[in-house]
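In the previous chapter we treated chains in isolation. Here, by contrast, the input contains two separate entities that must be folded as one system, with a combined length of 485 residues.
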Amino acid sequence: MISEEEQKTSKIPVWDLPDVPKGKLPPHLELQRTRVLCTFDAPTHTENIRYSGAYASMGVDNSLRLEDFRNNFKVEVIKLTEDDMEFDMIGIDAAIANAFRRILIAELPTMAIEKVFIANNTSVVQDEVLAHRLGLIPLKVDPRLFNYMSENDEPNERNTIVFKLHVRCERGSPRIKVKSNELKWLPNGSEFIRSTEKSTADSTSKTKTYTSFSCGQDSLPEFSDNPIAPKHDDIIIAKLGPGQEIELEAHAVKGMGKTHAKWSPVATAWYRMLPEVVLLQEIEDERAEELVKKCPVNVFDIEDIGKGRKRATVARPRSCTLCRECIRGDDWDKLVALRRVKDHFIFTIESTGALPPEVLFTEAVKILEDKCERVITELS
Amino acid sequence: MEHGSFQDQSQATFSLTDEDHTLANSLRYTLNQDPRVTFCGYSIPHPSDARVNIRVQTTVDPAREVLKDSCQDLMLICQHVRGTFDQAFTEFKSKKGLESMSIEP
């Protein structure tokens, strides 16, 4: 931590400066290395200094030592619900934190509806719009139990999930909403008969459908007591007027977010650096009250220091949005410093429901490991 | 795929297919932290090609070995992150489990 005395820059001849202990950076460089300074016009020192020899002249080794990393790295779970998770990741570089975020969004597989066979659609929603809407419905199913379907693969019980949707609004009845709970899982695969040229000739052979399941998915142990369904059953797919009907079959396959966002397992995943608010001088009485009033998110508090005097304190730095209201006007930036801690990430994952957020994160880390392994095997 | 010269093993460009900023930027970080590396950087020559070029120049060691070591470092980092995360998660879970239980005296 940098003390307040060191913050003040008064002019001293260079030979009067105290010797900097070897192996430690002088405070101003340490500040620039570990913090983003948010001044009122722009943030400064935003880049990370990564080069191993960056501080060689000061006798400071900036190279990666795994031992140090292991000692300093910390994870702290802040909030955890069924689908959301917030945790602090401390002591890691932005490059790696960002890699995790990118993998979470684009490279973790899920199942999503990819092919829609429409038998009848007399609703006002066009076929392609309907198919697109179906694709975006999150499905509650573990994608690790399925394989990818490549170009020439037959859809089978290990790469495809089939849903049926058949809704009809009777004449004379009021309009109805078609919701995602109408999507019925077909564990035995497609029910639509594939019409071929000689379909009438050989009635002995099994009728061919759009899938070739060798067994029902409900007989597989992982789905027998855990039927596949959309995550939410109140998503509106379409609205039907009297006499209108939709009959279709939807085939869900495994895919990745970089192909289409419907396969992204997170609603979003993001991180922010921890805000740090430092009072450079004591702020007392009227100025303290003014400061508390300035902040729209209530970062500051007032504490009594006796004899009827009051002093401002930083009570909730985490809620600071760095709006910089508190350093606006009349030299306030000399009293308050806004910074961000470069290696402290507040990571938030919002799962769409296929997998819980903590599993998503561990899977993301595993994917980065696999990528490294691929490079190593290719090089050796 | 490696593009380098036979005389000088200490500098090479590695062209990785099906990779992007995710891996390249992390590798650039670990490479930069390696004291043997004098220069490293990466580029994506064309946004439509799933390909990234990583340039590594070292003092003496073969660039390929240094890149391999960096991958190894990154893997070790990942393993540690995973272990720490799992530990923090189970800790949080057990703490929350205790809080939700009402302990009557």
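The first helix of chain A runs from residue 4 to 7. The interface with chain B takes residues 50-53, 61-64, 66, 69-70, 73-77, 80, 87, 89, 92-93, 95-96, 98-100, 102-103, 106-107, 358, 361-362, 365-366, 368-369, 371-373, 375-376, 379-380 of chain A (CB under 8 Å). Compare these points with the single-chain example from earlier in the chapter.
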